[in-house]
Amino acid sequence: MSLEIDRVSKSFDGAASVLEEVSLDVADGEFLALLGPSGSGKTTLLNVISGLIRPDAGRLCLDGRDITDQAAGARRFGMVFQSYALFRHMSVAQNVGFGLRVLPRSERPSRAARRARVAELLGLIEMEDLADRYPAQLSGGQQQRVAMARALAISPRLLLLDEPFSALDAQVRRSLRGSVRDLQRKVGVTAILVTHDQAEAFEIADRVAVMNAGRIEQLGTPDDLRSRPATPFVKDFVEQG
Amino acid sequence: MRRIVLVSLAILFAIVVIVLPVAAIFTRAFAEGLGVWAQAVTEPETLAALRLTVLTALIVLPINIVFGLCAAWAIARFRFPGRRALLVLIEVPFAISPIVAGLCFLLIYGAYGPVGGALQPYGVQLMFNLTGIVLVSLFVTCPFVMREVLPVLAVSGEDEERAALTLGASGWQIFRFVTFPNITWALVYGAILATARAIGEFGAVSVVSGAIRGQTMTLPLQIELLYNDYNTTGAFAAATVLALLALVTLVLRGLVSVFHPARGAAP
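^ inputs. structure came back:
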């Protein structure tokens, strides 16, 4: 699915705007990173895309269809939260199967079909043997993978990742980057990653949008950004990382 | 040495203040034998009082749960004008003496009060009957559920709820599958405390009950009545029933802590 963000603006409680007429196109199957320091508006933009925050102005189109007014649940975008937000009282399998369980009766797969789908996803993240564990019994990296599987279970039209590696230690982080990228390719879903870590963005993403103060400073491939930074801010940010 | 002193002090305090009085109720109640006790307990007036007390608790409990959940949810999840005021207001019943609360209800809902007076021409009487007793019991017990649920709701679950939302769950499904399991134990705990309080309430109920023998006497009121009638055995026998009800809630409370999922699933 391709996503078209057209002049989206957002401000909170009349304060200075967090997003100022941000426009951005994400191609089908692409892995795009929103990179920027904290307060640059990247997480707000992700929340606007997910439908958790309503923009003050602007439009969102998915494959040409306007989804600006669509509710978060109806968008069917898989989201991985910074805290993972796993359901504490549900097992790994129940967490992964949640999105299928809450489907309206007419669309809900049978119990057996749901179980098969969950098993398939657990296979994908190589955690078949941990299906009955609870989130508190998992390592950070395992929790992150369960959050991924849960988001993928609904066959999302878009995968949204909000700083998915920030709670992990450096070594796990590096090994998970590759596996997240692999998973996204395998499933073939368009993905948007929010991060403040330049190295992470450059390693995972096809294209990177560098954000600052509610605007996109530059959008390009990692090579573009490195060799032809458009603004001093981008140059600084890229060199720093 | 210091430990021994501390522990003995704690035990001594518990014995003097808690164990002795409770033990005294039971010794005095059974002093004239089990038969006399059984006769006193099955006295029609005492049975009626017991029935009224349990009925009141059963009416108050679900209202408390629904209201406490709504209030806690609203305060934990939304920012609205008057939110802080609601938070303080809900604690008022803890601060006000129950007897004052009873008088307030009488002033407003009594036959000469603005609400009670307005309803009287239609033959609706709010005070000196079950309605009045339920109303003041609600007032006295309404903070318990919210007080237990709110802290749990406040520290947990908002991200989980957002995750459920993005996964397509409806508002009801989010509550049923995500929020509710997180707060169940706090809810049960609050409900038990509220029930214990409703069963034992004396001051507020004594003002609005009207004290009609065999009709609007709750168990605590009946005990006082029997005692004032110099029917000491009857009073203490009825007191054992009330104490047993309280013990049941205590046991329930204990069970809640025992069965509270301490396994890795819950933090």
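Residues 1-30 of chain B form one domain. Chain B is about 80% helix and 0% strand.
thumbs up if we can close this ticket
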